[in-house]
Amino acid sequence: MAWNGRRKKKALVLDDDPNVLQVLGGYMSAFNFDVETTDNPRAALELCKTRRFDIILSDLMMPDMNGLEFLQEVKHADPDAAFIMITGYPSIDSAVEAIRRGAQDYISKPFKIEEIKHKIDKAILEKSLKMRLRHLQGITWALIISIPLWLILGIVFARSIR
After folding, report:
1. Total domain count, the chain
2. What's 46's domain CATH number?
3. Would 82 be classed as within a structural domain?
4. N or C: which end of the chain has fewer CB within 10 A?
């Protein structure tokens, strides 16, 4: 997916480690994102309620609210949010739970820039495809519903020209 669309994409990065915030914030800026960073899950939730982000990256282990709880709240506010969980304490259980709750991917620290970029591209593409599919389904239903109406109008028109 191209990073240079009509508008600059928006990213939110949440991590309680200031070094990780700085590195990820720098990566996201280099990827041409308008990036918000915070170490506070509650502040991040407020941002999610007032803005739409193209991608959200969140740490798993944080004080006050863990990443799984944050993910659940984000998905409640924006079911289409593209979300990547990041952790320095990887486990199969936490990865499965993150994906089950709606994360598109799971990244272990330390991470590589290529890995981050690839997973972000993949998550944004997945979100875009889901939204396009939903749009096409809406168009399909509109057509299905309108066909009987057009048939009735055709019959009325045919009878009126007799």
Report:
1. 1
2. 3.40.50.2300
3. yes
4. C
Angle at 103 between CA 133 and CA 21, to 5 degrees: 125
What domain range is 118 assigned to? 9-127
Please, what is the Cα angle at 41 between 85 and 118, to 5 degrees? 25
The secondary structure of residue 116, as a DSSP letter, is H
Residue 148 in domain: no
Query: Which single residue is written with the structure tokens 């709750």?
Result: 101
Cα separation, 2 vs 31, in Å, equals: 10
The predicted pLDDT at position 1 comes to: 42
Cα of 19 vs its chain's centroid, Å: 24
Question: What residues are paired with 57 via a beta bridge?
Answer: 13, 84
Which residues make beta-bridge pairs with 58?
14, 85
